[in-house]
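Final report, section 2: Outcomes. Of the targets proposed, Polyribonucleotide nucleotidyltransferase is the one most frequently requested by collaborating groups, and we therefore present its record in full.
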Amino acid sequence: MYKKFEMELAGRMLRVDVGRVAKQANGAALMHYGDTTVLSTATASEKPREGIDFFPLSVEYNERMYSVGKIPGGFNKREGKASENAVLTCRVIDRPMRPLFPKDYRNDVTLENLVLSVDQDCSPELTAMLGAAIATAISDIPFDGPTATTQVGLVDGELVFNPTAAQKEVSLMELTVASTRDKVIMIEAGAKEVPEDKMIEAIFAAHKMNQEVIAFIDTIVAECGREKHSYTSCAVPEELFAAIKELVPPADMEVAVFTDEKQVREANIRAIKDKLEEAFAENEEWMAVLDEAVYQYQKKTVRKMILKDHKRPDGRAIDEIRPLAAETDLIPRVHGSAMFTRGQTQICTLTTLAPLSEAQRIDGLEDAYTSKRYMHHYNFPSYSVGETRPSRGPGRREIGHGALAERALVPVLPDESEFPYAIRTVSETFESNGSTSQASICASSMSLMAAGVPIKAAVAGISAGLVTGDTDDDYLVLTDIQGLEDFFGDMDFKVAGTHKGITAIQMDIKIHGLTRPIIEEAIAATKKARTFILDEVMNKAIAEPRPEVGEFAPKIVQMKIDPQKIGDVVGQRGKTINAIIEQTGVKIDITDDGAISICGTDKAAMDEAQKIIAIIVTDFEAGQIFEGKVISIKDFGAFIEFAPGKEGMVHISKLSKERVNKVEDVLKLGQIVKVVCLGKDKMGRISFSMKDVAE
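The predicted structure is given below as tokens.
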């Protein structure tokens, strides 16, 4: 039965249609926020997937170009693989939802979000996040929701909720907060060095608004919600845990995991598994869940050691950072390079500079095509964790980590007018044992400075972890978590920023939300660690950006011309500008306002191109001297090309002070000569003289 629900949300109407479309899904909500329309559905398989030890949740966010009145580019004229924005949206929908499904649930679940229309003032990403939560909450799929999400901007010092497109353009903050009924469950932020206290204020202002949305969702669930279905639990039998503890006492497990060497720990666990597999070889039921049982045993051991004994697996203090190292210029010939090492996490970032014409062009759900001048890419090869698998290109994790580092660094980049380059940084993971995304931020900041990019301030990133007990006030926040603490802990709270403030946040948790004291303590811990990394490590490797770009980087000179003269420089069908490029070997970019960027590695060639353009756009006056090439010889004189597409004539009487019978007696094709401008003749052509140059 079709039902419609409405509420006002941040000054715009949010409408949810239930029972109108997609009735065969377990749950479906047709979402309308302003004129933005998204269909969100939740479906689940009837039976658990066999042979897995994880919850198989898939989240999709499908952008359709018809939603903004566009036809997709390319030969096929249909949407291809998911865009980077779609991948990042899937991740941000997944993160607050995943912890709220039962931990022993192994049925396949798919959350599908189809963007049908886009109102630029009403975020389709936010609409999809709300839709996914509603579709799941009203379905029969076990789910401890609902969740609600709010976006926050900072405009003229004031917090703005679910900002419009115009507000986003001037906002100092792009914050997304998801909440359960009483806790914050997900934070994603990009900011222009926003102070920590302002960020905390914004987080909990969003959390307060989320409670209004949850109350609205509760009314929908009360009228349309289906009874949750029963499912086959995949929990490990308690008898198996008891049997394992008899063979491997807790003290032995503590010894196995208490090491800073990942390979040593893995060898210890492998030995324990071999012992247990031999003991339980005849019990097929136990063998099927033995890996999960050992994982749970490790998890309980590590959590107990940290929370109760205040002992970390590598012996560090709770707020201690692993050993740090930083260096620059380790890779020759690239435009900039830096390596940052934190314990067994090691990232090398390479910087490439190019003309603005090489900025990334994005065909997305915006009113017009957009371009991205700064690109950060992150690679995570299998060797970095001592494994072997073929490389199949970046996955969602790699795309997400790259976008996080990019977001952290954009606020400190110089303006195009100050530094007219397209910039690409690539972070290569050499070794990984926790928080490589934050190490890539540190390495990228140093690499940019080494490349001569005049960034406004250095940026560092660090991650805080969490282990919780049975009550809200029984917890421990850890600084700089390694892989084991991430796997077995409850939180990965990544914060990047400068001395001045925060530039990016990404919070992943495995529990049902965080209280305000935990969030405040995590942000304070990351600020302390970030300050130490900046002052004691990064600044000692490179304290400020190099004064100019390196030897192998392209050089760019800029000049400004009258926009009315752009056509003269470009020429018919690009003939003039292409001739300049062919003659000098440089790259030339021209904007509609007459700004010209000349890019090359040979200064003489760049100067030549600049000189040619200056000649082309000059209003010719008598007395100006030019150097040109003879391109045509006639009985009455010769034509001289003094710039691509620009030519004038020297009459035979103006060739020499001596009498000239034939033009060929003085000139030949291709000869370079100096001429003086005499003005324009009756036909408007430029007239030159060779004999009057000296005068």
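Residues 238-307 form a domain with the Arc Repressor Mutant, subunit A fold (CATH 1.10.10).
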